[in-house]
Specification:
This protein is of the alpha/beta class and about 375 residues long. It is built from 13 helices and 18 strands. It has helices at about 15-20, 50-55, 100-105, 115-120, 170, 175-190, 205-215, 230-235, 250-255, 270-275, 305, 320-335, 355-360; strands at about 1-5, 20-30, 35-45, 65, 70-75, 90, 130-135, 140, 150-155, 160, 195-200, 220-225, 240-245, 260-265, 280-290, 310-315, 345-350, 365-370. The strands form three sheets. Strands 3, 5, 6, 9, 10, 17 and 18 form a seven-stranded mixed sheet that branches. Helix 10 (about 270-275) links the parallel strand 14 (about 260-265) and strand 15. The longest helix has 13 residues, at about 205-215. The N and C termini lie close together (about 10 Å). The model has no long low-confidence stretch (mean pLDDT about 95).
Amino acid sequence: MRAAILYAAVPPGTVHTQANTLRMEELEQPEPRGGEIGVAITCSSLCHSDLSVVDGSRVRPLPMALGHEAVGRVAALGPGVTDVDVGDHVVLVFVPSCGSCRACLAGRPALCHRAAEVNGSGDLLHGDALLRTASGERINHHLGVSAFSEYAVVARESAVVIPDDVPDTVAAMFGCAVLTGMGAVLNTAEVTPGQSVAVVGLGAVGLSAVMAARLAGAVHIIAIDPNRGKHRFARDCGATAAGTPEEAEGLVEEATGDGVDVTVEAVGSAAVMAASLGLLTRGGALVSVGLPHPSAQLAVPALQFAGAGKRLLGSYMGDSVPERDIPRYLGFWREGKLPVELLHTDTRPLEEINEGLDALAAGTVIRRLFRA
């Protein structure tokens, strides 16, 4: 099987097409073990979280087969897997919840303790890493998926069965971008009709949050990004206003008079988080979705919390329950309420993955999809 491998992190600003940052290589195709399935990847999607591993912002064990957002068809079943069939259409998700840890028992599988452990080590939920080069060198799994490949062995818990008629170019984005952005608004913030929402950072996650705010009945939806080229996408997704960070306070003031009820920060910057907190009205909530560098520190006036009743809410994978939320969100898509197709920039062959990294870093694409 072919897969895109990262052998060493490279600094931000690297031209990935010149550096050949991700190398397409032949790996031994593994067989699924107990509790695992083999999936023929039909379509994968490039996310900023992949780019964060590439530039070292998200520290992962290397070498690693990257990619965590994808759709495919079940090709093989490991021992004990009886609730899916070969040929089933599946969306892959990057937190394979164990079902028995403290977080899972509390109904928060996105925070599964066991999944966090194995995702950090490059292993799978049901055992050590399976990927090997022809010479036997271990290749780590990325978030239990490793989707920039022709084939993946994943935990059964990493796959959600979906209807056959959902196009791969739509389904591929539900495992991360849609799940995270929608969940931040509907699950974490629990936005209600008539509220006001600001979304800061208009990648695929932020634009999904804009769609969710419209779906939830927000009356003002203010989209913020320094890239003016993304403002049109935001309006198409449901934003009532869009502007740059320098224009954010003025847009919020014009819309609400004193601040928004919810701000979704989808950049991954401590400085942007601090600024986003300042866009809130009294009693408002800042939902942190982006992933800052581990060394980043947040400095804000402490009195904003007790003194103004503001809340800071972390949201990993949108506080989602994938088996519940992916079918629900697909239902919104079928009803025409969730225009996910707007996020799809184009589809390229997997051999162009390094060009995709460059385009994503430059902000010229929203979601570029790849076919092996």
